[in-house]
Amino acid sequence: MEQILYEVRDRVAVITLNRPEAANAQTMELLDDLDAAWTRAAADDEVRVIVLKANGKHFSAGHDLKGGGPAPEKLTLEYIYNIEARRYLEYTLRWRNVPKPSIAAVQGKCIAGGLMLCWPCDLIVAAENAQFSDPVVHMGIGGVEYHGHTWELGPRKAKEILFTGRPVTAEEAEKVGMVNRVVPLDDLDTAAMDLAGQIAQMHPFALRQAKRAVNQTLDVQGFYAAIQSVFDIHETGHGNALSESGLPVLMQLTGMKDKVKGQ
Q: For the domain that residue 58 is a member of, what is the CATH number?
């Protein structure tokens, strides 16, 4: 079964996470296929808007903690850093800067790594049952790799969510501006596609320039530099896990399985 589905409807590219049996947890293959879908939509002149959605009860349970591939002969921080810099940082920043408006349609749980799928989108439409959380402080890590927390929630709310690990409801997310619209679950797909259709009527060059203007304003305020620097802070958590008995958790977070030799 394909982990990512792709179709174009009325100038809207619809990218669908398709691991409902695993709550759309992210394997390395899923992230690679997702990046390919974003790239395809960006290159298609027919596409004016991108919608990211998910099949099943939950948008995404984050990284696949059951492990998706064998560990190397010797696990080093350099190895982990290179994997995560590509799939968790380079991909998300590329999706954020695709020169077309994007909308995430979120239902159910959106946990940790799930945030790095919806936060790069320009708009978020959430079902009433959506819950957003980043509980990885419990695992000894200071937050998910793509640190949009401060920008999406504000500094005090971001600290509360990180310190406690509690979920943010769709209603609360809308109040702080992280979510654009909250709709009944049964209306989620229709609401996202209606919004995409409205945007698709606008001039594509003007849409690109409007998106660029907002993103560059955030970058001037420090967004891009902060994302880069906080990613390095995140990696120190992995370094700490390498030096402690938390290695199994580290392997889960990086999508690895099997015993690591040479440690």
A: 3.90.226.10
